[in-house]
Specification:
38% of the residues lie in helices and 15% in strands. It is α+β, with helices and mostly antiparallel strands and 449 residues long. The strands form 3 sheets. A 7-stranded mixed β-sheet has the order 5-6-7-2-13-12-8. Helix 6 runs parallel beside helix 11. The radius of gyration is 24 Å and the shape is globular. It starts with 22 loop residues before the first strand and ends with a strand.
Length: 449
């Protein structure tokens, strides 16, 4: 990507007739504009009814465009020697951002799932013009096996991270059962309540004040030790430590402009919660355990078929990079109120990376995969790796500039096998301008390999 030149903008006026102030972007958001770190977020939304395009436009005009990041141009501040970026408020023409293609299935092949999948895949080869706010919405009024219609909400990662974007997006929705009420998000996690329960039980069992201090001291020492080990492994991964070559690793040198495919599936949350309660773990532990079980069985079956008897999957180095949110979750209600009052909404990117080892082994009891994942995650929770990796990226920017940091930071991701990220969704069925939502499938593209 060539260096961005100053863009001639149309100034946006506030309610008093004055020019709105420019929005300074965070260093992490600025780094997302470097060529090998140019990430886009895709949110695939399935709907239970065909989409009324005019109603959707009106909803976006009345709510989403109140957020400054969706109504500002991102330009380099030429007066700043560090070449930071800022958002310049501008007038948004919705016709430049909302695309309604005329998709017609092939009469000889009425596979609309493949038609929508190909359309989404083609988006991964294109970028959004810097001469307008970096987002667009593609409305596909084509019925598939998943939904009656599909929208693809695409935006540049510099606008915000998963937590801020989902909170903002859901603030535009309303409960299907009560069109005047905002969706409900689960703010407190089960993992935190589990930790509190353990602490309270331990506290009741401790009789001596001296013993309490010893326990706290050991906890601090353990936290420090775990953090040093984890951060050292992260740095080693960024510099030279790569995962073993496997059927899941991306071919080296794959260009970020390569056409990608996005596959999404829906699983029963009730089934996930049933396993969670059975193993006394968390939803994330169950997801990680299922992933380990699937990878293990695939690898063992593949190498047995190919007859590679000298290969031991247990010796494979297979790890996942997991994104951890570092900002407090405000909730949809707070975000909606801040937008209505034209207040500054928490935005930008504020996350750290944690590297999770994956066990590639054959276990007789499938639940043992979840228990191993639970042990791994409990160990990772007693570490400050996510915060340290966030501050490490900030330090890299100060020492080497945006280009140097963008060259080093993605290496930790490209040297691991998988990339995990999840965001909590609403607790009930939600709708947008009378369109009930069937599913949301978020993903991203543009990361280097």
């Amino acid at each position: 990507m060539a260096l961005m030149k100053p863009i001639r903008t149309t100034k946006k006026l506030d309610e008093n007739g004055g020019e709105e102030e420019a929005l300074l972007m965070s260093p992490t958001s600025r780094m997302f504009h470097e060529p090998n770190y140019n990430l886009y977020v895709l949110a695939i939304l399935g709907w239970k009814v065909p989409i009324n395009v005019d109603a959707m436009k009106a909803e976006i005009q009345g709510k989403l465009l109140k957020h400054p990041r969706f109504s500002s141009l991102q330009v380099i501040d030429e007066s700043d020697d560090s070449r930071n970026m800022k958002g310049i408020p501008t007038t948004v023409n919705l016709d430049d951002h909302i695309i309604v293609p005329d998709l017609k299935p092939n009469p000889n092949n009425m596979d609309t799932d493949k038609l929508v999948e190909d359309y989404i895949s083609n988006l991964s080869t294109a970028s959004i013009d810097m001469a307008k706010p970096l987002w667009d919405l593609h409305i596909l009024n084509v019925k598939t096996s998943h939904a009656e219609a599909t929208c693809i909400f695409r935006l540049h990662h510099s606008i915000g991270d998963g937590v801020s974007l989902v909170s903002l997006l859901l603030s535009c929705f309303r409960k299907s059962s009560d069109p005047t009420s905002l969706p409900t998000l689960l703010v407190s996690s089960s993992s935190s309540s589990k930790g509190k329960s353990k602490f309270s039980n331990n506290r009741r069992s401790i009789r001596s004040l001296t013993w309490q201090y010893l326990v706290k001291l050991w906890s601090c020492i353990s936290l420090l030790f775990n953090t040093i080990v984890d951060v050292s492994m992260f740095v080693a991964t960024a510099l030279f430590l790569k995962d073993s070559q496997s059927p899941f690793t991306v071919p080296q040198g794959l260009k970020t402009s390569t056409r990608m495919r996005f596959v999404y599936r829906t699983v029963s949350l009730d089934d996930i919660k049933f396993i969670k309660n059975l193993t006394n773990s968390t939803v994330n532990d169950v997801i990680l355990g299922i992933t380990q079980a699937a990878l293990s069985r695939y690898v063992h079956r593949k190498y047995e078929i190919e007859g590679k008897r000298n290969f031991s999957p247990q010796k494979m180095r297979c790890r996942a990079s997991v994104v951890m949110n570092l900002r407090p979750v405000l909730g949809v209600q707070a975000v909606a109120e801040m937008i209505e009052k034209n207040a500054v909404v928490i935005q930008g990117n504020c996350f750290g990376i944690v590297i999770i080892p994956l066990s590639i082994s054959q276990l007789d009891n499938p639940l043992d995969y979840v228990r191993k994942a639970n042990t791994t995650m409990d160990r990772k929770k007693h570490s400050l790796e996510s915060r340290c990796t966030f501050y490490l990226s900030e330090l890299l920017i100060k020492l080497f500039g945006f280009k140097g940091a963008a060259a080093l930071a993605p290496r930790a991701l490209s040297h691991t096998t998988l990339f995990f990220s999840n965001v909590v969704g609403p607790l009930e069925e939600v709708s947008l301008s009378g369109h009930p939502l069937a599913f949301i499938a978020p993903t991203c593209y543009g990361q280097s390999t």
